[in-house]
Backbone:
């Protein structure tokens, strides 16, 4: 139920203001975020986007927004991850009444609520203790575009461990307005043009890298429900459970023109970047084991001299960690968002089972520890994705030397580290 609010000190003492409680899916260092409500897919800079469910068709509107209010979703959905990278708070409200969200609203990050109207001043959030980054050898920063690289490299003091940037091919598609399924199904030349367009996006990112930094692109992992929203001409299969359906490496293996697009991508990178093309790496998405990885390398026409990383997000893949090196994986990335939902049988996008989706569950930590220790013994290098709220816990309970985290959360982590290091870390 809406909280009583007339003359309430938490709403600035303004009569007639209404506060609606919710659950914060993506946080922000600010205690409050104010903006004018906006409901369309068109970008409105600084607005508060109000949408029932976040999807890739709202990409442009999301990145322009100051905050998002939604009715459904979990903390680690794809678009929530985009917001986390940009520091855009996302509030899922308990009572979603679209007609109520008109005009100015104030997202109360500190209270996990939204006030219909503006409030005076900005409450101060309690500051968590600082942490130490000294035990980390590498941080792979999850980004959406070149601006995220600039913002990370502009941190003062700079985070020296941030030596790798990780971008999803589908995010490049969303940002550049590309429809990969349409392109790949329209003929050989359109597939090549698609690959060249992705290469151009990557080139703009490479220009922002500092010496010693590199960029890794995870190959296309577009689930059928997301693909349907950005595909205009080609048919997209309607799957009853897209999370467990035809996507990731299994989709790439079934797509005959993707290798042509990938060759065009690599050729354009070589042509435009020269030796710097070696600073761009690639990772195979949504794998189960090393045999699937070998088949993808063969499908893409990669020889033994050309490295390919592996993105592990299923229990089968995590328990096959040792085998990926023999299959030619140059580096490994563990995608904990999907891994957790598969370990705990809790849909990461379903708020009704949010209490079962536990990022610190003992079974999850045991699997991560096993994978990390396996790589310490046999290689290759490994990065584990972690939410900002779990960094302290993971550093204390896992022997991790490499982490992955979103841009905005790394910035918050860096500010905490600059305030001092507690004895417990």
Residues:
């Amino acid at each position: 139920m809406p909280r009583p609010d007339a003359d309430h000190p938490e709403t600035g003492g303004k009569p007639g203001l209404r506060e609606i409680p919710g659950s914060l899916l993506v946080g922000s260092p600010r205690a409050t975020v104010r903006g004018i409500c906006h409901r369309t897919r068109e970008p409105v800079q600084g607005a508060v986007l109000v949408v029932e469910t976040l999807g890739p068709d709202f990409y442009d509107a999301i990145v322009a927004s100051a905050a998002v209010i939604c009715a459904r979703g979990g903390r680690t959905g794809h678009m929530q991850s985009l917001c986390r990278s940009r520091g855009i708070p996302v509030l899922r409200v308990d009572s979603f009444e679209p007609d109520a969200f008109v005009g100015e609203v104030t997202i109360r990050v500190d209270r996990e609520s939204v006030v219909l109207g503006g409030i005076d001043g900005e409450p101060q959030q309690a500051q968590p203790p600082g942490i130490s980054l000294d035990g980390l050898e590498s941080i792979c920063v999850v980004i959406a575009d070149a601006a995220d690289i600039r913002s990370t490299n502009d941190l003062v003091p700079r985070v020296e461990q941030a030596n790798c940037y990780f971008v999803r091919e589908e995010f490049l598609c969303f940002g550049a307005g590309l429809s990969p399924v349409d392109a790949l199904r329209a003929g050989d030349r359109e597939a090549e043009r698609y690959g060249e367009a992705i290469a151009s996006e990557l080139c703009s990112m490479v220009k922002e890298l500092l010496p010693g930094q590199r960029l890794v692109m995870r190959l296309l992992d577009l689930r059928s429900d997301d693909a349907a929203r950005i595909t205009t001409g080609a048919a997209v299969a309607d799957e009853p459970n897209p999370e467990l359906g035809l996507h990731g490496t299994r989709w790439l293996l079934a797509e005959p023109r993707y290798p042509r697009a990938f060759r065009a991508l690599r050729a354009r990178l070589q042509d435009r970047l020269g030796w710097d093309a070696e600073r761009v790496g690639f990772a195979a998405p949504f794998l189960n084991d090393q045999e699937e990885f070998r088949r993808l390398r063969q499908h893409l026409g990669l020889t033994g001299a050309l490295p390919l990383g592996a993105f592990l997000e299923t229990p089968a893949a995590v328990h096959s960690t040792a085998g990926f090196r023999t299959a030619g994986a140059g580096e490994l990335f563990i995608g904990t968002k999907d891994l957790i939902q598969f370990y705990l049988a809790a849909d990461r996008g379903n708020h009704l089972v949010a209490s079962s989706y536990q990022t610190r569950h003992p079974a999850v930590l045991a699997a991560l520890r096993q994978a990390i220790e396996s790589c310490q013994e046999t290689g290759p290098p490994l990065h584990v994705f972690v939410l900002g709220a779990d960094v302290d816990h993971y550093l204390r309970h896992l022997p991790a030397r490499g982490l992955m985290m979103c841009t905005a959360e790394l910035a918050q982590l860096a500010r905490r580290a600059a305030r001092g290091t507690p004895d417990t870390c």
The first strand starts at residue 18 and ends at 26. The domain at 138-419 is CATH 3.20.20.60 (TIM Barrel). The chain has 16 helices and 15 strands. The CA atoms of residues 239 and 245 lie 7 Å apart.
